Amino acid sequence: MLNLYKSNKIEVISELLAEELKICPPPINEKLEIVVPNYFLGNWLREQITIKNKISALYELKTISTYTESLLTNFFPAIDMSAWNFESIKWGIIDSLEELNSFKESFPLRNWINKYLDNKKTIDGDIYNLTKKITNNFIDYLIFRPEMISQWNRYEINSSNLFKNLNSDQFWQPILYKLLEEKISEKPSCLYMIEVIKNLRKIKKVQFQVPNQIYIFSDNNLSKLHINFYSELSKFIKVNLYLISPGEDLWNRINCLEGELEFDDNKSKSNLNNTNIERIFGKFGANFQKLIDENIYTEGINLKNNLIYFDPTTNFHNKKDIPLLNQIQKRLIDNNSVDFIVSERDDSILLCEHFNHNSQFEYLRNKIIEIINSCENIKYSDIAVLSPQTNLIKPYLRYIFNNELINGEKIPYFFIDEDNHDSSSIYEFLIDITEIASEKITLEKIDYILSKKVTQNIFDFNITEKDEIIFLLTQAGFHWGLDDKERLGEEKNTLDWCIKRITLGLIYDKEVNLSTFNLKPFSYKNISLDLNKWVKILIHLKKYINFLRGSFSYSNWVEKLKFILKSIANSNANFNLEISEINRILDNHAIPLIPDDLILLKVFREILISCINKAKYQSKSRINKILVSDIENSRHIPHKVIFLIDMNSVNYPKLPKSENINLLKNKYHLGDPSVFEREKYAFLELLIACRDKFIVTWVKNDKDNKKLDVSFPIKELISFFDSSLNQGQRELIIKDSDLNKNEIIDIDKSKIVKSNYSLIEDINWNEKKFDIKNYKLSELIYWFKTPQKYWLNKNDISPKEIFIHHPDEEYVSNLQKSQLISKIIQQVEIDNHNIFDDLNELNINDQLAENGIIMPKNSTFTKEKEIKELLISLSASLSKHKEINKIYVKLNANKEEYIIADDTVIELINAKLSFSHLTEAWIKLLFISSLKRNIKKTKVIFRTENNYKSQIIQSPGGSESNLILEDYINIFKNYSEKCLPIPPESAYKYVEAKIKSKNEKKAFIDKWIGNKIFFKGERDNIEMKMCFGNEREPDFFLGNNNFDKLSYRLYGPLIKALNK
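^ Exodeoxyribonuclease V gamma chain, sequence as received from the core. Prediction below:
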């Protein structure tokens, strides 16, 4: 018998299944197998059954394909039913390409195959992607065209019967299938399914070859072949099929024929114009219902149809209190025509447009806080945030949730992506290192890999050390390239070259002439780093990247990964479990069909991603956490609150790709797969899985401020509401983007929610006394220059966007000038007694070429002249000092390098004098002045266009320098724990104006807000937006007396030192 259970509530189905298992439990020694659409739903189902029955049974959750193969094995024990899996077919196709090329029918693939053969059978990205596309098509044929596979199996490779109902440009496909048959030892499982369906009545003792009962939890994912197979089995055993359905008779509702109509009144006319929600989103589900009904009718199946639809409106005594969400769910069940009632308090459905992604995520964050604080019965685990593509939300997760200053705690979340896994951190490192190894090594790439938390855990360093080593590599002369191989024999300015310089600097003094090495030792003033440790780290990274470069066979690639994993395990035992698991996955993925062809690194990286993802690295705990996921994995899991974000046409639904080679397109069969309709139906599934609040959002503009359209099914939904609701009701649920309003949240519902998200809502001015002896000068300088960035980095909070500089290649930009002058000064060395002669003798044209600066020929002379004038100006500024020497000043763990001329510190900046440069020079002056009483001032030499100028900073004196430095250290230690509530550049202008008896508030406002036409204000910087909110008003700072005092403590001494 076929027991068909249909319900709109998954909780009802889980209770039915739990009760069934309680009444008819499986034998104690028998493992219970349940068919589920995906792992995440299966895991939820397992938990519900365990809670209901108060016992954890031995459940095994399987997909319909895996479960069917295991059943077939009972009928054919000697046959490997999984032989025709995706990997076997894929590698079998690659191994068959050369042979396929010998058939004239292969002409549509001739260009790809010739490329493969011409490249000595190297698997590049084009070949690999083509193979995956063909493999996916063949998988479709096995599931949805078994009769065609049966025909191909019946005839020989040279038979014209193979090409029945095919066009000439499709003849290669049955030929390729026959070639695969030679390589894969068994027939496809679909052929054995057909055999069982035809001969089941002839098989003796069927009941002993299959379980007494079969449990299939389906979400319309069964093919016609599966339905036929299990329908036939239901004639001998009990098959329980559980279906989640929004309502009954969807096919007739969506596909009703229009006959002759008469309009007796206006109401009838308006009802005709109204569509229904299932017609917008429900075609996929309707087709599946029809497929089952037809099969049951034609096969004469003994059916027990159990319709258990739960009325979501029964718990409300007053119709006016029924939320719109429940009314819609009720209409989906029974197709009623009752008019919707929407009260002013009804927020059960919201359709919200936002100006851009930033405003959408700010709304999301604030709305979550509002709901948690205003709804006592809603916990974090009752909320789901779903997106059509999780890569759209993943970069924002930390920004949205990981900020402890909001509401006093982080918002806990549980993230799964499209491949249903929470990645192992070592796996992430492998993916990153393989990506970097396939590209040109630049400073940005090194910065990227070192910024990853897993890299920091492997090699035991922090984000501050990372920033210092990146700066150190720049100073050591790193341009690009791993070694001389990447730069075609040129070793200079590569990572390998810099490592050697730093290594020699640890052994020899910089002054030592090491002609045998053909490079100078490098040592820098910032020695707070453990350079011995960092040389080892850089050598390891260089070794890994070099080890991964090239083309190798699959088995060689696996050996290389295992070598890297072993190296990591040897240095850090904390990753042993993860490494063992990855090794196991790599071993299990190896199959005999994988050829020894060479595989490009980028292709192997894709294979690695695929095989790890299939292993499902799931996080096991979701205790009171918000679920963040793609739609596909989580569409059935019930939640009280569901946020469906990024519903723009570019994301949802996925438009069908024009796959002309897929033979399913020759003729449509009921039940054929449709990604387009499947994605639309997922919206309906989410709608019935929601219990309290269903919030749909999309954005009006992308990150480049280009117009984006809302998804057209959502447009149709809006049109549905337009025709079903009056204007007042419409405005309650459909919120349009409005630039004059900060957000569309009911602020009165939560005192915590503000119109603009920020990390700092209230300023905490309380300070504690700290031990001021133990500190890092490099960290103090970094904090003093950019206190908000320092705090964000320390707390591992990433900005929502980054600035990327792209210098124009047609001329020598200011950036290039600055870099070039820095390299020249590094080569000649400012404390060299022959520096003026060296500067005059430099060949500028050679320097431009050496540093990779290429210009149009007619501008070479002009640009060379500009650089020459700059050097003459620099030489003139330095010549005012008779003797310039380099010294090192050390105190505890701090050691700084200084250039000294008599009683003056020389700071050379090959760029304009910025606030950052000025404050760094100031802190360094305080440090040396507190230790060496003879130092009177710092002379900052800086560049303005094509000329050098100087700025004097007077030393406050030894004792005063020490007091100021101690105060700075205490402030630093206080406000490295909490974010400094002072924007540095605006506060500096404020104090400067006050000391000069000018309008300090105007000075602050001008710097903070800026001028919209000519220049941005400090509040437009990313870190300021994150810490203080978007467009924070000046009164937030100026209205507080503590702001005035702390600003003066920080910047008053510097400004006075400049004005002496």
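The CA atoms of residues 295 and 725 lie 40 Å apart.
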